[in-house]
Design brief:
This protein has eleven helices and nine strands. By secondary structure, the protein is an alpha+beta fold. The chain has two domains: 76 residues, 434 Repressor (Amino-terminal Domain); 128 residues, Umud Fragment, subunit A (Ribbon). The chain has a nine-stranded mixed β-sheet. β5 and β6 form a beta hairpin. The radius of gyration is 27 Å and the shape is elongated. The termini are far apart.
Length: 271
């Protein structure tokens, strides 16, 4: 392994001192210095944090000798995320097909929600999932239904299911698109996505409920993106009428009352 020498080389390329990098990683200087001098070994969690900071893969950090890299190697490594984000390499998508060889819409139940992050590429895991028939969906695209919990995305309520269309090229995703994002850290989340991949290698996730603060997720933590298509709910959304709507509702109520009064008056006159 080349961890110690790679850490030293990456730090120098970033232009930071040991003290500065230690602060970024929430370490004291002596602890970080021990990593570079092979006095101590960083934990797997710390290696992951370091690799994310330097935007290199964990595998490269551990197994590659960066001292042998030439300019082309550094350029390829530092832009590796673009290949993954654009989907030009093989993006694993395990799917279920029916007897007519047509792709099904798998439903990720609340029960298996937590296991989806680990099992999304496992054929056995996917084969056990229930499926939906939604005839209004295109046969030329891939869809999946995900459970929604919490109140961060009204009018989609807790307990609903959001149907998403698989996104192959993340770079093409338009900002302000409602999407299901599957992440290695937070699992399945449903948010409005603002695409900052080209500038900052991250997505900004925003809730429709203003009580929830926006937050960013780095490209390294993204496993899948599914663009919102529709949702399934047992509840009717709570609609708040504006002033014009309230006025129309009140006028209709007055009309109904007037009709009732006329009917009562005619009934009494006949009696």
């Amino acid at each position: 392994m080349f961890i110690a020498s790679n850490l030293k080389l990456l730090r120098k390329r970033s232009g930071k001192s040991q003290e500065e990098l230690a602060q970024v990683l929430s370490l004291n200087r002596s602890t970080y210095s021990g990593y570079e001098n092979e006095v101590a070994q960083p934990s797997l969690e710390m290696l992951l944090s370091i690799s994310q900071f330097h935007k290199v893969t964990l595998d490269d950090l551990i197994s590659k000798d960066f001292s042998q890299y030439v300019a082309a190697d550094w350029n390829s490594m530092e832009n590796y995320w673009q290949t993954g984000a654009k989907g030009t390499n093989l993006r694993i998508l395990t799917t279920v097909v029916n007897t007519e060889n047509e792709e099904e819409v798998e439903l990720i139940s609340e029960k298996v929600r937590a296991g989806y992050v680990a099992g999304y590429a496992d054929p056995e895991f996917m084969r056990e999932l229930p499926t939906l028939k939604l005839p209004f969906l295109s046969k030329n695209r891939k869809y999946r239904a995900f459970p929604i919990s919490g109140d961060s995305m009204p009018p989609v309520s807790h307990g609903s299911y959001v149907v998403g269309e698989f996104v192959q090229d993340w770079l093409s995703l338009a900002s302000n698109s409602p999407c299901i994002i599957v992440t290695s850290n937070d699992g399945i989340v449903f948010k409005y996505v603002f695409n900052q991949l080209k500038d900052a290698q991250q997505l900004l996730l925003v809730s429709s409920n203003p009580s929830y603060e926006p937050y960013a997720v780095s490209v390294e933590n993204i496993l899948e993106i599914w663009r919102f298509v529709s949702y399934i709910s047992k509840e009717i959304p709570d609609v708040q009428l504006d002033a014009e709507g309230m006025g129309a509702s009140f006028r209709n109520l007055q009309k109904d009352i007037q009709q009732i009064l006329v009917h009562l008056s005619e009934t009494n006159s006949k009696g």
